[in-house]
Specification:
By secondary structure, the protein is α+β, with helices and mostly antiparallel strands. It has five helices and seven strands, in the order ααββββαββααβ. The chain is elongated.
Length: 165
């Protein structure tokens, strides 16, 4: 009896390890088909879960609200941000061609809700050399593991006197 339980457990562990390895290889190779599969999974499952508390005080995720560059439809995407002075740094594991990145670059502005506060931001793509020094050591290792070469700096838009933007 214990034999089949052990083999089943080893099989599950082997499948999990194979899945993690496959994701790492897809992210490192930037294979368009593989990235598409990861994006679809994230849109359907991970993003929905993250959006439950994204942008709220204490949440690890922020929400970037943007407008479709062709449709004009409003969108909200959960993202991880790192404070860099008055601005925010964002990993771009899929590259600068992700739809939400293209949307905010086309619009030139977006609304970022993080830690319960809303900020008007303007995007600027930067390379790893500029971004990596601002990340914690563990996140630098993840960026290198997935060969993340593009990062986004979301610069807070200037606020005019009287609070008008």
């Amino acid at each position: 009896m214990w034999g089949w339980i052990l083999w089943t457990l080893l099989g599950v562990v082997a499948l999990l390890l194979a899945g993690v390895l496959a994701i790492v290889l897809v992210m490192r190779s930037k294979n368009p088909r593989g990235l598409g599969m990861v994006r679809r999974f994230n849109r359907r499952f991970t993003n929905r879960q993250a959006m439950r508390h994204a942008g709220e005080a204490g949440s690890e995720y922020a929400v970037i609200r943007h407008v479709g560059r062709r449709s004009g439809a409003p969108y909200a995407t959960p993202i991880g941000t790192y404070p860099v002075g008055d601005d925010f740094l964002v990993f771009l594991p899929y590259g600068a061609d992700a739809d939400w990145v293209r949307n905010i670059r086309a619009a030139g502005t977006a609304e970022l809700m993080t830690d319960g506060r809303v900020h008007q931001v303007t995007p600027r793509v930067v390379d790893a050399a500029e971004a990596l020094p601002h990340l914690p050591a563990g996140d630098r290792r993840i960026a290198r593991l997935f060969r993340v070469t593009d990062f986004l700096v979301l610069e807070r838009a200037a606020v005019a006197s009287g609070g008008a933007r």
